[in-house]
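User: Some background: our group keeps a shared notebook of sequences we're curious about, and every so often someone picks one and asks for a predicted structure to add to the entry. Today it's my turn. The entry only has the sequence so far, pasted here. Could you supply the structure so I can complete it?
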Amino acid sequence: MRPPLWHPPIELSDHEALIIKRIKRAKLFTFLRLNRLFIFNDQFQEELATIFKDSTVGNSPVPPAQIALAIILQAYLGISDDEVIEEMLMDKRWQLVLDCLNCETPPFSKPTLIRFRNRLIKKELDRRLIDRTVEIAKQKGGFGSSQLKAALDSSPLWGAGKVEDTYNLLGHALRKAVSAIARAGQGRELAEIAELAGAPILNSSSLKTALDLNWDEPGERQNALLILLNSLFSVEKWMQSQSDCDKFGVAKETLDVARVIESQNVAFDSQGVPSLSKGVAAYRRISIEDPDMRHGRKSRSKKIDGYKRHILKDLESGVVCAVALTRANTPESAATLDLERDLKFQNIYLAELHIDRGYLSSHWVTQRDETLKIFCKATPVRNSGRFDKNSFFLDWDTHLISCPNQVTVPFEPGKIVRFPQSECTICPLRADCTNSKKGRTVSIHPDEALMQELRARQSTASGRLELRRRTTVEHSLAHIGHWQGDRARYLGQRKNLFDLRRVAVVHNLHVIARISKVAPIQPGIELDSLTG
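Assistant: Of course. Here's the predicted structure to add to the notebook entry:
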């Protein structure tokens, strides 16, 4: 059954006015109380209500706007679901926003909060929360047109799942599978199932204690892998032999995960003896509990176990228009596909894009049209004391490159140009150009025309000033990191995208209050810019 529209009082009561005057920090509570019906207008409430079935049967659910406000406040304070329920009973600021002052029971329960969040994610309506803040920014003068001048950047988000080595990953999967079998109605404890299934190594406080091997010896490590893989095979065979094996769906899924880990990390010699594979598989799974976590890098020196969060910020208003969450091993450039999809829902198109070099291979850059301006620091040109690439002239009409001595040869983007050895040998500028006996070479970037444009821009004071505009997105990332934290709240990529989206909503509400104060509803109540 769909809920009725939520229409709490607009005017402040004396009690509410007193509470607002006492709020010195965390002024988002004040902002939401004064503007809750402006943010969650009837049209938006009706859209959120589509997560419920349109039926006359069942109890009337809680208004989605009320739960959505609680979800935003949860992100603002970084608290758990249990703490949300507690705050609604104990904190007058929460009661002020949710219209439940002095309540003896919370407006909704923890299961209701969880169900609403899951339905919000399933219907992709968490994206609409960001869209709504962008709509408000447009109405309040934050946007002049649908042509966006945006900056894009990313930061690490460490996963919530436990990162384990190959031995512990296999052992963890085995233990989880046997536990699932025990729960599926066998009427036996895990230890008994482990013995029956041929995996007694699970009956110890830890896997490596059960193995009791000298891990410094390669032969012992091979023996450990053999024991684990034999145990895995034994559990699979035992499970298949059971008459009620259809009940073991969860266990089978977990054992399939163990086989994936085996394929990614274990190699067999001609005798069938296992050992750890050399190198790291491209999409290596690093956690049993979180299937989406990956090893990755933010830079050469900075490793990540988890995800990367990306935000696209409007440089004029400061509003975050779209966010994306990718696995840590995914190149930054891959995030732009998700970001573009979200922008299309808002009918916003890019006019300027300010990025770092990690996004230069994105489709926004490689497939750009002439209307999109790219601002980025160019790839540095190596200079060994001789003529560098900037000393060569590229004619884009004829695709010819000329050296400082006016020798001309054809070039192709993405290829290496080699000047004739005969010309380089007799060249009077050879000493300042190359010492190669085969002649001078020049590497042409796949998007060399853009690189030349970027180098020319950053060689001027105005161009360098323009490049510094991108630093504001780093500040917004820092604010979002402050609210969301450096470690993921949830297991799985999709739920953590939801968390990133609602934190972006918190950011945008602060921006909206700053760039264009929404007119106070209650006379005499002055709304300052949000702090805290």
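Suggested note for the entry: The two ends are 38 Å apart (CA to CA). The chain has 20 helices and 13 strands.
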